[in-house]
Amino acid sequence: xxxxxxxxxxxxxxxxxxxxxxxxxxxxxxxxxxxxxxxxxxxxxxxxxxxxxxxxxxxxxxxxxxxxxxxxxxxxxxxxxxxxxxx
Length: 87
Prior knowledge:
The protein is mostly helical. The protein contains three helices and no strands.
């Protein structure tokens, strides 16, 4: 079986997103905090799959994308208005 080669820029961006979510470094546009904890989900996936190889990072990034798409589908069924928090 041939190993899949991953684009280094893609892996770097995916790792950056994974790390930002796991470290809760920034406020995401509410999609990570509505109806589920994206941080907890990504942490669980990282624990199961790891995040030390390009393949691991690719899997985690695909997981984040899939969770986001599913949650957008769920949220689109509600009449919700989001606004930015004021500091």
